[in-house]
Design a protein that fits this description.
By secondary structure, the chain is mainly α. Helix 1 crosses helix 3, helix 3 packs across helix 4 and helix 3 runs antiparallel to helix 6. The longest helix is centred in the first third of the chain and has 26 residues. It is globular. The N and C termini lie far apart (40 Å).
Length: 211
């Protein structure tokens, strides 16, 4: 049976989406091509009509997962009031909802170590998407010089990622919640410390949740 180009593109996207969820849940070792193709209603042999290799699929799945996070951050910033946009991103990221839904969450805490061990093409794709994430956070420091804003953004992302890794490792109890709270405090304290240099008033942080 012949399929249209649109149908093939839709199937390709569905496979990538499903792969990105499984990558975040199970890691690359737990990504089974046969299972993915079955879910897409295709045979194992049909895989090569969409991807040149398993690594090619993993690379696309990595990029898709990170693009999801970047999109969420931009949306949260756009919807938050001026002065609370970074807090909206941080509080949404370091939430119990995000902690408990790794499959649909940020790729950094789930796949950062795996990406560092992947081939050069996947590492490059990962680094490019990470640059976009840094840019989103840096945009929240409009009154700082670009290099300073970038430094603040990298520090905040590193804090958020580390806190999420530790919180998931600790489980879903009180200690894990404490780690998330400490991470929010540390990430937003970085913003507060930067504001006197920028000549900006210090806004209160908010407590909304969401990935």
């Amino acid at each position: 049976m012949r399929y249209s180009k649109d149908h093939k593109a839709e199937t390709h996207e569905r496979i990538v989406k499903n792969a990105s969820v499984r990558l975040r849940e199970r890691g690359a070792a737990g990504l089974g091509v046969a299972e993915l193709m079955k879910d897409a209603g295709l045979t194992h042999g049909g895989f090569y009509a969409h991807f040149s290799s398993r690594d090619a699929l993993i690379g696309e799945a990595f990029a898709y997962a990170m693009q999801q996070t970047t999109g969420r951050w931009r949306k949260r910033a756009e919807q938050a009031p001026e002065g609370k946009r970074l807090a909206s991103i941080v509080n949404g990221y370091l939430s119990t909802e995000h902690r408990d839904d790794a499959g649909n969450g940020c790729a950094l805490p789930s796949l950062g170590v795996e990406a560092s061990r992947a081939n050069q093409k996947i590492r490059k794709a990962f680094a490019n998407k990470l640059e976009e994430m840094v840019e989103v956070i840096a945009e929240q420091f409009k009154d700082l010089p670009p290099k300073t804003a970038r430094r603040e953004a990298i520090a905040i992302i590193s804090t958020m990622m580390g806190a999420m890794v530790l919180a998931r490792t600790a489980g879903t109890g009180e200690f894990s919640d404490e780690i998330l709270s400490a991470g929010r405090y540390a990430a937003l304290r970085s913003e507060e410390a930067a504001k006197p240099r920028a000549g900006k008033p210090q806004p209160k942080t908010e407590t909304k949740t969401g990935i």
